[in-house]
Structures are given as C-alpha cells and as structure tokens.
Amino acid sequence: MSINVSKVPADNIPYIMILVGTGMFFGNILGGKLSDSISPTKAAIICVCRLW
Q1: DSSP state of 50
Q2: DSSP 2-49
C-alpha cells in the first residue's frame, strides 16, 4: 500500500522506515527529557506548537 500511495520505489521503503523509526526514537527521548525539565502540560503544548 505504501508503494501505491506514495509512488516511492519499493527499494527505498526500508530506508524511509528506518528514518521514520529513528526520528520517533529520538523524539521520544527528547520529549521525555523536556517533560522532565518543565511541566508535562507545557511540554505537550510546545511539541504541538512545533508541528505547525
């Protein structure tokens, strides 16, 4: 399905998945450190505002 929707060659899908997984891993660590240093509510607001 990801090949048909994104029109990305099948050979590139594993690399994209590795990149996405690495981003989620480091985002989870950085988000945890941020919520430990300030309140979790403020950390969530900052993270959501960064998406736009």
Answers
A1: H
A2: HHHHH---GGGHHHHHHHHHHHHHHHHHHHHHHHHHS-HHHHHHHHHH
Whether the Cβ atoms of residue 37 and residue 29 lie closer than 8 Å to each other:
no
- Type of residue found at 17: M
Average pLDDT, the chain: 86
Q: What's phi and psi for 8, nearest 5 deg? A: -95, 140
Dihedral angle of Cα 27, 32, 37, 38, to the nearest 10 degrees: 90
Please tell me the distance from the alpha carbon of residue 32 to that of residue 19, in angstroms, as a whole number: 20
pTM confidence score:
0.65
In whole angstroms, give the CA distance from residue 2 to residue 5: 5
